[in-house]
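User: Hi! I'm working on a homework problem where we have to compare a predicted structure to a textbook description. Could you give me the structure for the chain below?
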Amino acid sequence: MKRVIIVLAVVALLLSILPACGGGREVVNVYNWGEYIDEEVLEQFEKDTGIKVNYKTFETNEQLYSVLKQGGVSYDVIIPSDYMVSRLINEGMLEKINMDNIHNLTYIDESLIGMEYDPTGEYSVPYMTGTVGIIYNSRLITDEITSWGALFDEKYAGQILMFDNPRDAMGIALKYLGYSLNTTDKDQLMEAYDLLVEQKTFLQAYVMDQIFDKLESGEAAIGPYYAGDYIIMVKNNPDLKLVMPEEGTNRFVDAMCIPKGAKNKENAEAFINYMCGVEASLKNAIFVGYTSPNIEVEKLIELESYEREVVYPSDEILDNCEFFVNLPQDILDLYDELWIKLKK
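Assistant: Happy to help. Predicted structure tokens:
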């Protein structure tokens, strides 16, 4: 009987030290933008840590927010953009990150920590930063493009793409009209909405990740997109040109966060720390084409001169950029209302 008790005690001890994931392997559930990580980095993370990565993607910040709000799907690491980080903080939907576990934070550009979207720097760690520009096919459009106005020009009817989310689409219209991306003036917002209504009559499509393929293949001639992707696109289609609009544009920070109630918080912090490391940051920057917040990457990455101008824009360009910030609830409600009307 004593032997049975001892055996049972040993079994109980073994069970107590096994990973707490249904008797299986340690896991981390990651929710990120599409085409936004080098999968070899995920494989190496699994080898180095023994933590399995369950990886899924979303297309817009609003889609991410909706998934989190509805519940039922549990993620440990999410990578929203700046203004959405702020909204999630304000609504109590994020965990504070134990920064003692993020040793590689020492490599992250200090100017990107403690920004307006996360002023205490407790809820997020920068993943990538970049800008939004206009990408157009110079074989299909022979005019010199300098302004957001090209996206609202009927002469390019049927060839124009637009972001399929309210904040970016309204933001572009606002910039073209000379307003702030973050205006709370309802008259200005209605003016931007009216411009989008007019544009819709000759727009080819509202899309997100498909902008990449449609512009690269020549299926569409012009659209807004993330400047970093241009580096990949132009290699496959040399007719493509990138312009930073004269009215100014959006500069963004996408950041790693932990949703409230995450089941694998320590694994999430291990993942965040790993992504901040020099090797992982360099591989991801090469794959994605965006600006890594890791200060060592700029010294190590090999870029053509035109690529470096895109990845590390001049102060003149950056000074003409604006970050999105979270907006008051009544303005967010207005955005939702106008977007639903626009997409009908």
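For your comparison, note the following. The first strand starts at residue 27 and ends at 33. The radius of gyration is 22 Å. Good luck with the assignment!
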